[in-house]
Amino acid sequence: MECIYQIRNIRNGKVYIGSTKGFKRRVSQHKYRLNHNMMTRSQLQRDWLDYGRDCFVFEVLIETAGMTAERKAELELEYINQNGGLNSPLNYNIFEPVAIKKSGINKLQDVSTGVTRSKESIEKQKTTMRDEGHPMKGFKHSEETKERMRQAKLGKKRGPMSEETKNKIRETLLSK
After folding, report:
1. At residue 53, what are phi and psi to the nearest 5 degrees?
2. Whole-structure pTM value
């Protein structure tokens, strides 16, 4: 689900506002990073460790399917400002979505999703790869490295996952 969402700390009232094209996937990413102490928003990470996961709620604020990227950024910023703006004591957000002008093309950069690349940028990369080749082209693994990779794969099941395995993974991710 495409939406603007918040992570709300029910103990101190602080919130993080974000936007995503896939809410469930984004929630899983946040939880994984927070559980593994990998979150770049250090205050949110500290509060997650201090208060525990049960003190945080992930909520959809508004569905954004069909909206332009600019409108989504405006709405996200409005929600951030409703909580006192960036770096407010009630807000975990430290960055805002930023409109960038580059090569005469308006692009939107959102800290949570990365930079949207122009068609020219994508074409330039394709041309470089086609003309100069892949950076790993011609690279050969040593026999020692090949053996370590082989040992790492031994005993691991290959091929598509069974429905039972998929359901177990799904249940584990949704229960977090």
Report:
1. -65, -25
2. 0.56
Residue at 39: amino acid letter: M
13-56 pLDDT, tens digit per residue, is: 999 999 888 999 999 999 999 998 887 767 899 999 999 999 99
SS3 173: helix
DSSP, collapsed to helix, strand or coil, labels residue 108 as strand
Contacts for 129 with CB less than 8 Å, ≥ 6 apart:
none
> Domain spans of the chain?
3-95
Alpha helices, H only, 20-162: 23-35, 42-51, 69-82, 119-132, 143-153
Residue 158 structure tokens: 């290959």
Distance in angstroms (rounded) separating the CA atoms of residues 35 and 40: 13
The domain defined by 3-95 carries CATH number 3.40.50.80 = no
